[in-house]
Amino acid sequence: MRIAVIADIHANYEAFEAVLDRIEALRVNKIVCLGDIVGYGANPNECVDLVRDRKIKSVMGNHDACAAGLEEPDGFNPLARSALFWTRENLKEEKGLFLMTLPRELRVIDFHLFHGSMCNLNRYILGKSDAIENFLLLSKLPGDSVNGFFGHTHVRTVFSIGKAGVETEEALELSLSPDKRYLINPGSVGQPRDGDPRATFLVYDENERRVTFHRVEYDVKACQKKILSAGLPPMHAERLVWGR
After folding, report:
1. 89: buried, middle or exposed (CB in 10 Å: 19+, 13-18, 0-12)?
2. pLDDT at 171
3. Which pairing describes strands 2-6 and 30-33: parallel, antiparallel, or unpaired?
4. What is the pLDDT averaged over residues 37-59?
5. pLDDT tens across 120-174, in order?
6. pTM metric for this prediction
7. H or E element, residue 139
8. Mean pLDDT across the stretch 26-39?
9. Distance in angstroms (rounded) separating the CA atoms of residues 122 and 203
10. Burial environment of residue 209 by CB neighbours within 10 A (0 to 12, 13 to 18, 19 or more)
11. What does the pLDDT look like over 172-217, one tens digit per residue?
12. How many helices (H) and strands (E) does the chain have?
């Protein structure tokens, strides 16, 4: 089975469409999403519809939870909070109900799917100490060699743990070792923050136990125009060019 893993769409319809077109060409069996379908961008309803229409299994992100009214954006920075309140006002009721029913965790093959950290939607896995905490949580799950896919940071990341302890891996194509466990972030579809503005995702080949990262160009200007026309904070448009 070949699985496409996406994360952090953030209501960027142009990036989401471009990624789905590339995924279709790759002939995967399933698409899964690591949360934050909405937030920041100007097309929350359309992005929710794409997730539903394509039958993409998704976990809940922190922006999804706040947009649905399950949580308040108390820890958000002012620009993110402003975009979240705009999303609440413009999100159709049935889309909010869909976000409200998303699970906070999923299991696909030998991977556990979650958004931020296994213990908190809003926490980030940024360094080795964060990774160790989550590897310990993974080790308590039933089943052998459980790995994790996570999002939230908007940065493509691979942590592995084996005899040498926790390591980071930089390869764009990675064969998973049976002697290691992995925590892998595919990067962001709608708002990359690693200096590369292209949308990013990964494909996991179960038979070959191989992860391959992909980058996709999309119509950034069209997305920016929508954000500005909607009255969302201009920074959310500007940063799309920088990939920051």
Report:
1. exposed
2. 87
3. parallel
4. 97
5. 999 999 999 999 999 999 998 887 668 999 999 999 999 999 998 999 988 899 9
6. 0.96
7. helix 128-139
8. 96
9. 25
10. middle
11. 999 999 999 999 999 999 999 999 999 999 999 999 999 999 999 9
12. 8, 12
Q: Who's near 194: CB < 8 A, 6+ residues apart?
A: 154, 155, 156, 187, 243
109 conformational bin, left if phi > 0, alpha if psi -120 to 50, beta if neither: left
Q: What is the DSSP string of 55-71?
A: T-EEPPPHHHHHHTTSS
- The pairing of strands 111-113 and 106-108 is antiparallel
> Which uninterrupted H or E stretch holds 4?
strand 2-6
Instruction: Look at the alpha carbons of 218, 219, 224, 230 in this order and tell me if their dihedral is positive or negative.
Output: negative
Which uninterrupted H or E stretch holds 183? strand 181-186
In the chain, helix, strand, coil percent, each to 5?
A: 35, 25, 45
* pLDDT, position 144: 65
Kind and range of the H or E element at 200?
Answer: strand 199-205
DSSP 8-class letter at 120: B
Count the alpha carbons within 13 Å of 49 in the hemisphere toward its beta carbon. 9
| 32, amino acid identity | V
pLDDT for residue 67: 97
In the chain, the amino acid numbered 141 is L
Q: Taking all residues of the chain, what is their mean pLDDT, rounded to a whole number?
A: 95
* Homologous superfamily of 2-242: Metallo-dependent phosphatases (3.60.21.10)
Identity of the amino acid at 60:
M
Q: Which residues make beta-bridge pairs with 211?
A: 174, 204
Neighbours of 134 (CB within 10 A): 22
